[in-house]
Structure to design on (231 residues):
């Protein structure tokens, strides 16, 4: 792949968009671009951080597991996300597991090389801190929801959250969530049972607040969900 093509790919990511050609071209010597099939484990929780990943295509699930093997999904990443967002300059460990859930193409860079670029270009670190701040705020909101709201309410809130992050408007009232997830995965995001999720989704379908298309992607009436949540 040519240097120009690599530059075009890097510019798809927010942290590189304000670098000029002189600044961004050297980065192309330190990146690898590779395709990963579904179910590939990119790294494991508590492994030492060796790489930074930039997702070009596909989806990646970030999740933690406890001693019993129970899974808690932290995030579902899609095109133009980078990860992990922490551990720089501390020689620390990956905070969670990362697994490809839809065939993916990724740019990778060694953590050492990435840290050097952060030092050279403070604008990159500023953007990383902004992204990290948004993630912390999101995690705080999810923790607050866990404490203050019922499982039924949390499921509605999570559907609204997924709509905001991954939703694509398809008509005046409806948005399609452009990631695929199972009832168990939704349960793992919230920290509840699959049966509770199934019951809630059935009720929402009956109320015509959600439906699925031929690709099993969820289509939601966002305003309807919002009104349902406030009832």
């Amino acid at each position: 792949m040519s240097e120009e093509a690599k530059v075009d790919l890097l510019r798809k990511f927010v942290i590189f968009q304000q670098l000029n050609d002189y600044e961004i071209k050297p980065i192309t010597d330190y990146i690898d671009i590779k395709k990963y099939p579904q179910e590939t484990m990119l790294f494991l929780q508590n492994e030492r951080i060796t790489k930074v990943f930039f997702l070009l295509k596909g989806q990646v699930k970030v999740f933690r597991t406890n001693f019993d093997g129970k899974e808690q999904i932290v995030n579902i990443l899609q095109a133009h996300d980078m990860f992990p967002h922490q551990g720089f300059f501390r020689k620390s460990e990956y905070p969670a597991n990362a697994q490809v859930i839809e065939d993916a193409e990724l740019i990778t860079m060694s953590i050492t090389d990435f840290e050097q670029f952060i030092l050279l270009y403070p604008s990159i670190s500023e953007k990383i801190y902004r992204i990290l701040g948004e993630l912390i705020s999101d995690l705080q909101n999810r923790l607050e929801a866990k404490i203050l709201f019922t499982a039924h309410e949390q499921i509605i809130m999570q559907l609204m959250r997924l709509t905001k992050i991954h939703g694509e408007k398809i008509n005046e009232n409806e948005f399609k969530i452009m990631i695929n997830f199972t009832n168990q995965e939704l349960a793992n995001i919230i920290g509840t049972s699959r049966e509770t999720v199934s019951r809630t989704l059935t009720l929402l379908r009956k109320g015509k607040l959600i439906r699925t298309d031929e690709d099993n992607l969820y289509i939601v009436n966002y305003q309807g969900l919002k009104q349902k949540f406030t009832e």
